[in-house]
Amino acid sequence: MAFDRSEFRRVLGHWTTGVAVVTTRTRDGRPCGLTANALSSVSLDPPLVLVCVQHDADTYECIEESRAFAINVLRADQERIARRFATFEIDRKFEGVAYRIEATGAPVLEDALAWVDCRVYDSHVAGDHTIYVGEVLDGDAAEGLPLVYYRSGYGRFLP
C-alpha cells in the first residue's frame, strides 16, 4: 500500500531546507525559473549538483529544451522572490528582478546569496519529477544568511 500523499508531505515537511530559484531560458531566449528546495551537491570531481523539477512546472520544458540551468540560493530577505517564482505566471516572474546571463545562457539573480551555472550532465525520471544532474561550470557566493523552508513556511537561519 502506498504511503498517503498528505502524510508524506507532513512528515517530510519537518526537513529544513534552503530555498533557491532555478533559472534557465526558453528556446527563443526568454528567461524562466521556479522556486526549489529539492537540490543537493552530488560530486566534487566532476563538480555536480542535482535539482528535482516537477513535470507540470512551467520551467520543466525550458530545462528540457535548453539543457542548462542555474541555481540561485536566496538570502534571508528574499522571501518575496521565493514566492514570486513559486506562483507567478512564467512571463511575469522576472519583471523587476535584476539578473545577468552566464555561460550556459541561464539567468543568474544579481542579489543571490550564492549561485552555480550548470549544463545538464544527466537526468532521471522519478515519479512526477525529473532529477537533473548538472555539471557546474561556474559559481560564486557572498556573505549573508540564507532563506530557509520548514513545514510549508519560510524562515530565517539564526547562527
Could you characterize the architecture of this molecule?
The protein has 159 residues and is of the alpha+beta class. The chain has one domain: Pnp Oxidase, Chain A, CATH 2.30.110. It is 15% helix and 47% strand. The chain has a seven-stranded antiparallel β-sheet. It is globular. The termini are far apart.
Secondary structure layout:
Blueprint: H1 5-12, E1 17-18, E2 20-25, E3 31-36, E4 39-44, E5 47-54, H2 60-66, E6 68-73, H3 79-87, E7 99-101, E8 107-109, E9 114-126, E10 129-141, E11 147-150, E12 153-156
Antiparallel strand pairs: 1-11, 2-3, 2-6, 4-5, 5-10, 6-9, 7-8, 9-10, 11-12
CATH class descriptor name:
Mainly Beta
What form results from the Cα inertia axes?
A: globular
Instruction: Calculate the terminal CA-CA distance, rounded to whole Å.
Output: 41 Å
Q: Which CATH architecture?
A: Roll
Order of helices and strands: HEEEEEHEHEEEEEE
Q: What is the assigned CATH homologous superfamily?
A: Electron Transport, Fmn-binding Protein, Chain A
Strand order of the largest sheet: 3-2-6-9-10-5-4
Q: What is the overall number of helices? A: 3
Cα-atom radius of gyration: 15 Å
The CATH topology is what? Pnp Oxidase, Chain A
Instruction: Report the structural category.
Output: alpha+beta
The overall strand count is 12
Percent of residues in helical segments?
10-25%
Stretches where pLDDT is under 50 for at least 5 consecutive residues are none
Main sheet makeup:
7 strands, antiparallel
Instruction: Give the strand content.
Output: over 45%
Question: Which labels suit this protein?
Answer:
Pnp Oxidase, Chain A, 3-stranded antiparallel beta sheet, 3 helices, 47% strand, alpha+beta, single chain, 159 residues, 15% helix, 7-stranded antiparallel beta sheet
